[in-house]
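Backbone-to-sequence.
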């Protein structure tokens, strides 16, 4: 019997195909219930009958000559060494018994691709077992029960060692069969603490536990919560500008984020008239929001509403938490990137989550875009006051949004124009600050007039574009921020010269006028009807006033300095500002910041007056230890700088420096310790001001 071509399944396993003819089904395929198919053998080209010459009898001459040659070779046969057959040639030899294999009971619609490894074999056994439409009874068995031993016999191989399974293949196969045909059903329920394993990384993980809701746990009543929401929309929302009143209702916030709901209530409670009742509400909400943010950080909760919550909390954060302002911004950025909050594309979960079902797609999109505007604005404020790079390096907002038209769209809010103008303002100020810093590092020659012109041109360009688009209240706030930022930018390259006496007269006069102008207007600004008091603005006013006082102190000792009358006039403006800061009618979370800054300013004003006029002055009571502990040291924030120079409880007799004040007496500083970060390859070390070779700079500088 001639060789029979092996089927595809046997050839893939390189095993012997046990069948007599090509039309039959081999035993292995019949046992496993797979399709037994084969490809015809093609051993070479055979010439057709028309190409072979025939003899007279009509028989091929080639076949006749082949028979004659075979008979002659048989007569002269000599035994030779048997040719060694390859593995695939041995596999294609016919079966020994030649008995036909039974037909496969499986249907013809089985997949034809052969399996290639044990995992595929196990999956085929699991998937290809015949299933009846009716469930089996207690005493019934499947039509074709699985024979475990016969199945394993197919893959047992003879071993030349004492170990029958040297490669652990059969052990793995037997273990898989035990699990596959085990009678006990495995429990697949998610147990407590396993939710994070099954949850998607880019999906919201909400803070909706019952004990986190301030109304559910009894911190405030539902009526008090609704009253506080009214206060938030009327007093706080024009400043925070991040929520949409038509989206963020009380029910929506409680259903999406307890952190957002608590932040809104806590901020609104701080804006209530000062009383024992409001102080008690703020104290309870302060403790609750601290605990809530610890749980959020520990459990890795994230959502758009939590990002909004942190930005609202940052705007009115209390004094002893000012060091957490920029970390909160960075956490919001991380959550936004993790949950795929794109500027122009809604995340997929907003289409499936029933919480967002009542919101139109346009409002969802604008809600995310408004969040990115406020987030980028906050990031740039933090980086500007520290002289650092912002965390969001890529300036993607202008490329994604047309700010000139975004606030005029159909679903725009009245505060959207403020968000656009504030972003444009902070972007211009940050760009100008970086250019000044680069110039300082490269030590290029430029005059103060050129520097002031560059600052004024940049700010005036913003004023022409955005100022007239704002409401009257927003114009008052924008004018204050514009003057404070202008003073900070003017002082950036010259502040360190206050300690060396190298500041020229024109630099003194221009910076002094800019500082006093802001301090004069800040007195009605901080006490007016418009809600303007935030920690960020208090710190910025504190920086401008103290830096202005340092300019006055340095000027008083120069030749040709101001007359005593002019000095007293200037000092009276700063003293009036200190009185306003000390008497701010706000909750102690904010009032303590103004109180400490005002007392420090008044103390410094009296010292300068004593030095200038030559008369003795009563120095106010030093700042208490408790007030310093509330403020903390080096509290960053919008407009915040280092207060580590505030001496704890004592005012030294001699402070050194050019005048009566020294660098540690008024330690608000936009210093140059950050200049090494601009270009780390520079050899200059700007962390020590004495190492700056100012003598090599042009005199006009």
């Amino acid at each position: 019997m001639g060789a029979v071509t092996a089927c595809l399944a046997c050839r893939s396993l390189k095993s012997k195909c046990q069948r007599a003819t090509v039309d039959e089904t081999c035993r292995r395929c019949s046992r496993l219930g797979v399709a037994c198919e084969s490809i015809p053998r093609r051993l070479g080209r055979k010439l057709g009958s028309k190409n072979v010459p025939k003899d007279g009898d009509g028989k091929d001459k080639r076949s006749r000559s082949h028979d004659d040659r075979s008979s002659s070779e048989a007569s002269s046969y000599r035994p030779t060494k048997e040719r060694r057959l390859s593995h695939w040639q041995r596999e294609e030899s016919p079966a020994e018994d030649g008995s036909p294999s039974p037909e496969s009971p499986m249907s013809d619609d089985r997949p034809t691709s052969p399996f290639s490894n044990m995992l595929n074999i196990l999956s085929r056994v699991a998937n290809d077992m015949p299933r009846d439409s009716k469930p089996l009874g207690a005493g019934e068995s499947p039509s074709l029960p699985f024979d475990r031993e016969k199945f394993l016999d197919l893959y047992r191989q003879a071993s030349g060692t004492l170990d029958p399974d040297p490669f652990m293949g059969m052990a793995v196969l037997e273990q898989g069969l035990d699990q596959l045909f085990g009678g006990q059903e495995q429990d697949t329920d998610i147990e407590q603490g396993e939710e994070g394993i099954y949850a998607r990384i880019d999906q919201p993980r909400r803070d909706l536990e019952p004990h986190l809701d301030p109304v559910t746990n009894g911190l405030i009543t539902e009526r008090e919560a609704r009253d506080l929401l009214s206060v938030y929309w009327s007093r706080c929302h024009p400043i925070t500008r991040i929520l949409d009143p038509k989206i963020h209702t009380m029910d929506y916030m409680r259903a999406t984020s307890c952190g957002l709901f608590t932040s809104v209530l806590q901020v609104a409670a701080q804006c209530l008239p000062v009383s024992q009742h409001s102080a008690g509400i703020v104290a309870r909400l302060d403790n609750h929001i601290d605990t809530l943010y610890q749980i959020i950080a520990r459990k890795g909760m994230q959502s758009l509403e939590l990002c909004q919550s942190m930005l609202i909390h940052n705007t009115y954060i209390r004094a002893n938490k000012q060091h957490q302002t920029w970390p909160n911004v960075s956490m919001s950025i991380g959550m936004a990137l993790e949950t795929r909050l794109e500027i122009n594309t809604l995340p997929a979960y907003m289409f499936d989550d029933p919480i967002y079902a009542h919101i139109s797609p346009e409002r969802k999109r604008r809600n995310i875009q408004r969040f990115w505007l406020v987030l980028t604005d906050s990031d740039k404020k933090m980086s500007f006051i520290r002289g650092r790079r912002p965390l969001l390096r890529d300036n993607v907002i202008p490329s994604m949004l047309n700010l000139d038209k975004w606030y005029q769209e159909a679903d725009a809010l009245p505060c959207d124009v403020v968000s656009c103008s504030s972003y444009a303002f902070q972007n211009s100020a940050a760009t100008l600050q970086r250019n000044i810093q680069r110039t300082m590092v490269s030590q290029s020659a430029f005059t103060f007039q050129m520097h002031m012109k560059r600052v004024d041109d940049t700010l005036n360009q913003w004023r022409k574009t955005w100022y007239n688009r704002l409401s009257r209240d927003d114009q008052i706030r924008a004018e204050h921020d514009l003057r404070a930022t202008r003073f900070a930018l003017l002082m950036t390259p010259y502040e360190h010269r206050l300690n060396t006496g190298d500041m020229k007269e024109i630099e003194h006069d221009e910076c002094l006028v800019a500082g006093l102008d802001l301090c004069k207007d800040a007195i009605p600004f901080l006490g007016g009807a418009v809600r303007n008091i935030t920690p960020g603005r208090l710190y910025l006013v504190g920086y401008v006033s103290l830096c202005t006082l340092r300019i006055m102190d340095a000027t008083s000792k120069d030749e040709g300095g101001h007359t005593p009358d002019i000095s007293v006039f200037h000092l009276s403006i700063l003293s009036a500002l200190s009185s306003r800061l000390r008497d701010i009618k706000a909750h102690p979370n904010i009032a303590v910041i103004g109180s400490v800054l005002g007392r420090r300013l008044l103390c410094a004003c009296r010292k300068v007056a004593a030095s200038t006029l030559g008369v003795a002055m009563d120095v106010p009571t030093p700042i208490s230890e408790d007030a310093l502990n509330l403020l903390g040291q080096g509290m960053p924030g919008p407009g915040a700088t280092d207060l580590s120079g505030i001496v704890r409880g004592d005012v030294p007799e001699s402070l050194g420096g050019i005048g009566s004040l020294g660098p540690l007496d008024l330690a608000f500083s936009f210093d140059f310790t950050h200049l090494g970060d601009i270009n780390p390859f520079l050899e200059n070390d700007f962390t020590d001001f004495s190492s700056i070779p100012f003598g090599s700079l042009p005199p006009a500088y």
